[in-house]
Every structure is written in structure tokens, then in C-alpha cells.
Amino acid sequence: MIKPEERFFSDGGNYFGVAEDPTTEAFLNVWDWDQLRMVKLKGTAKIFPPDEGREIQIMAQFADYLSPEVRTVALDDDGLITKVSTDPDEDETIFVPYFPFATVPSLADCRIIQYSKLQELDRLGPGVDLSSYKDESENPETVAFKFNSWWKPVRMQMAWDELHLLKSLPPHPNLLRLDRVVLDDVESRVIGFTTKYIPGGTLETLKVPFRFEWLQQLTQVVDFLNLELGIMHQDIAPRNLLIDPDTHQLVLFDFNFAARGKDRLIDGQDDVSSVVFTLYELITNDTHFTSIAPWDRNIDMVQSISEWPCNRELDSDVSVFRNFLDGWAAKRRSDGDMERYLNAPNQLTWPDLPTPAEYNVPYEVGKTMDGEPNLVTGVRTRRVAIELGQYCFRWERPPQSRLLKKKEGENAVADLYQSVAYQGQVA
């Protein structure tokens, strides 16, 4: 299930006057990663004081009870609902123009799966479901299904790059690679992808003795990505590390923030520094460095600590881990390391993100001074795209809490039938 603190995101809004005046009318849009929908909340600045995030707290109280058709919720100054609206004109959801699979030749050799063939098993996090499907031989496969249902320019770029990166990765025991490209059932548009699912949780929650060989595997796979492929992961952390129960190998995943050469390279977020902070966190369970922006921290902050308090079971002394890590980091941070990264011998390549064809279709935004239609192109809301006859894939779904209650009810009924049948047999 999605963590409560990760479920909602405030997606902007407007104050019709001075935001600090409690009587000012306002609206704020809240995105729900559980139901994959946007809801507009209306009220005054008294219940929506600027920069306090109250809209998320309010939305969390009733999100599971709203009809799927509700677009806006009006509230009084006590935060009580006074009105709900299903008016499509109130829908602030931005249109996501997914590419038809046939128009992306760079993915032509990928295996595909239709969205309807995926059975949802759980919701692992924002934009990631645990799913299953049957392959061509009717063998069941359990996978992580990753998708981008929420429009943001950077998210479109990240989704494009991650899919192509995973598709391009050579086989490696410590990397999670692409399984299948997921297509919608109506127009075969690319809406996401699947990867192998590795059970047990990440090293953020998996409390197993940490092995020295896993640190060695982590540094080796980082060297492989950086110095062989010219890829910087840029988000190495315990939450993105798995232990495969079949191979007992460490596996790195989640390339959301990955850089290819200089493209999308973030200052201060190099993989060497991330490995150092990751090992420190794994050994000590001290997570306070994660709240520091990458550009405001450096590895000396933890390397200069004379003794790392050990709060996790290890298969070797802390000094063994630290000596190896210090030697590796010193070698990687020597002069010429960035040049080696930028000139990696087997750099991965893929095409740039194209402009969606739908963005080239103009739509009207008001009138000109002469009373003529003011036509623009580019990003548009979902309601505008629908008016233009453009295909919109709909992600909305029931809250997981409702599905769980339904499942619990079905299980209770099944248990009751089994009990009655057993009593009948006994009688």
C-alpha cells in the first residue's frame, strides 16, 4: 500500500486576492496517487493558508469517500464540505499525450503487454503497482508495473529516458532490467513498463545482516554504470537496493533520476558520494543526512566521523567496510574521474523525447483584441483534449482501502460457506 505521507501532492492553485487575508477565496488542486485523480478544493485562505499544505490534510480526511466523478469540493471555514461538483469544466487534470507504440521505433524490439492483461496485486508507491500476468505459455509472472499518470514536463522526460535506459542495459546480475512495455488496449500507446518483481522489500526496510560482498557488488555495479556505460544513477539509497532471494545478490533499481553523460547531470549527486552516504545509513541507521540537499553535503561529513555506531548486524567488522569504501572512494574521486565518465567506452544512446503530435494541434484560449479566436499549441488540459477529439487514457481507480474491504468481505463470505459446508458434512 502507498505510504500515507506519499499519497497526495499539492499541484498548485490560485488565490483571488491577498493570500494572507483569511477571507480571500482560493482553490487548490490535489493529486491522489492512490486513485490516480485530481480534485480541486475550494475555500478561503483561512483554511488554505499559503505554503502550509493544509489542502493535503483536508483531502486525506474524505478522499476515499468521494465519487469517482467528483471534480471539485467546496469547504466552509471549518473545513466541512458544503458542495461537490461533477462538472467536467472544473477538471484541472492536464492531458498526458502517450506515444503510439508504432511511432517509437526505438522500442520496436521490446516485448509488450496490454494493460488489460495486468492484474493489480498491490500499490507499492506513487506510480508503481505490484501486478501479475500470464506470458505466452500461460506461465504466471509477478512484476513491478511503473507508469506515469500525472503530467509534468520533467516526468515525461524521466519516463522516456528510464524506459530507454532499461531497454538498453546489458545483462548484469546487479541491475534490474526491462521486462515488457505496457500498452493501452484502445490505441496501443506506451503507458508504462514492467520489471521483474523481487520480493522482500528494499534495504530501507529489510533488516537482514548486511554482507561485505554486497558493498563490493554495489561499488562494482556503480563503476560499470559510470565508467563503462556513461550512466550516473543519481539516486543510490537503501530504498533503491534489493536483495534477490534467488541469487542472494544485491540489485540496484529505479533510474528515475539517471543522467546520460551531461544530460540531466545534477551537481553534488554523483554516485560515489551516494554510495558513501548509503553505507553510512545502512550501518548506523542515521538518516538525517538524507534531509540535506546533495549540493549542500559532501562525503567528509560522514568519512570524518571517527566511529560509526553500528546499529545493524554485519558479517564483518565496521572497519572492514570503511577501509574498503575509503579506498574505493579515494580512487574514484581522483583527478580524471569525471573525464572517464564522460568518455565511457560503451555509452548508451537513445533518441531524444519527441514533441507529441497532439501538441501541434491548436486550441482556443480566449479571444484577441479584434475578437478573433486566440489559438495556441502545446500543453492542454484533459477537457480541452477531449473536446478536440484527442484520445485520453483514463487512470482513475477506486481507493485501495475500498478494494481491501471488498476482498476482506469476499474472504469472510468464503469462510462462511466453508464453515456451513463443513457443518453439513459433520451433521
TrEMBL record:
<dbReference type="Pfam" id="PF00069">
    <property type="entry name" value="Pkinase"/>
</dbReference>
<protein>
    <recommendedName>
        <fullName>EKC/KEOPS complex subunit BUD32</fullName>
        <ecNumber>2.7.11.1</ecNumber>
    </recommendedName>
</protein>
<dbReference type="InterPro" id="IPR011009">
    <property type="entry name" value="Kinase-like_dom_sf"/>
</dbReference>
<dbReference type="InterPro" id="IPR008266">
    <property type="entry name" value="Tyr_kinase_AS"/>
</dbReference>
<comment type="function">
    <text>Component of the EKC/KEOPS complex that is required for the formation of a threonylcarbamoyl group on adenosine at position 37 (t(6)A37) in tRNAs that read codons beginning with adenine. The complex is probably involved in the transfer of the threonylcarbamoyl moiety of threonylcarbamoyl-AMP (TC-AMP) to the N6 group of A37. BUD32 has ATPase activity in the context of the EKC/KEOPS complex and likely plays a supporting role to the catalytic subunit KAE1. The EKC/KEOPS complex also promotes both telomere uncapping and telomere elongation.</text>
</comment>
<keyword id="KW-0808">Transferase</keyword>
<comment type="subunit">
    <text>Component of the EKC/KEOPS complex composed of at least BUD32, CGI121, GON7, KAE1 and PCC1; the whole complex dimerizes.</text>
</comment>
<dbReference type="GO" id="GO:0005524">
    <property type="term" value="F:ATP binding"/>
</dbReference>
<dbReference type="GO" id="GO:0004674">
    <property type="term" value="F:protein serine/threonine kinase activity"/>
</dbReference>
<feature type="domain" description="Protein kinase">
    <location>
        <begin position="118"/>
        <end position="427"/>
    </location>
</feature>
<dbReference type="InterPro" id="IPR000719">
    <property type="entry name" value="Prot_kinase_dom"/>
</dbReference>
<keyword id="KW-0418">Kinase</keyword>
